[in-house]
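ok so i was messing around last nite and threw this chain in just to see what happens. nothing serious, just curious
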Amino acid sequence: MDHRVLGRTGVRVSPLCLGAMMFGDWGNQDHDDSIKIIHRALDAGINFIDTADVYSAGESEQIVGKALAGRRDDVVLATKLFMPMGPDTNQRGLSRRWIITEVENSLRRLGTDWIDLYQVHRPDPSTDIDETLGALTDLVRAGKIRYFGSSTFPAHEVVEAQWVAERRHRERFVTEQPPYSLLVRGIEADLLPVAQKYGLGVLPWSPLAGGFLSGRYKRGGGEVTSTRTARVPNRYDLSLPANQRKVEAAIAFGDLAAEAGITLIELALAFVLRHPAVTSAIIGPRTMEHLESQLTAADVVLDTATLDRIDEIVPPGVNLNPEDAGYTPPVLSKPALRRR
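result:
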């Protein structure tokens, strides 16, 4: 695989990043099999792995740590924090108190002395961004992490974080990890141009739209099932018009891929990788078969005619289901904040 520079860091990463969310209780519960999948990805040229503390309550990090024994120096390792990790009200969020505590927990689970890219999983409206940047900057200077980034931040919060870092002489976010796929194109309107302006590496999650673009939907039958259905039902409930539109578009994209002589998975991943702002697309295989079906996408190049056809099915800047944006600002999700 040809490697790409991660933002302006000078670090070179593969165009496909191995996402580890499906390793552990949330997906593949066989640790040995998960490790084999990780090793196969590394042998295929992937040098970038992304996980999070919350994935299977830390189990994913443990599996990744075991898989990287003896190979740690060859891998750019990323993990995340923010989501609840226990019953205590302070075992979550982006306070200095929790960041300093949880990075040590992740280092222990991963079996490593440093994390290459430490990412905040979502914005934390209850914490001043300067507090978060200050704690992360201290971790960089202490050698615990090399860089840090954000995930699923609205464009305006990405800009604010860059400005605060400059004014307060903090290290800055060097990457953003947003949702992006053929069905979820909202970030094309604002986030991706902002990322380009500030030189951020962009690491899209769910490029297969949570399974909708896996090829399971075909004319005349088939359905999407996912271990995430129970956690995010609004993204999968087929009684909702927005999800029905996703099915119709997925079928149309399947037809387009067949005309182009490639699989729908290859079309979906190649589309995400085609955007000039994107550094590496995060794939999340649960099985070896899933991984093998995605590895070939790094070599697929879509021509202009195919890209134009894609825009006809789902226009640029459009999310067919707004729930797929991954983050709703509290002022929209909590009516009380609008009615004070």
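not much to say yet. The chain has a mean pLDDT of 95.
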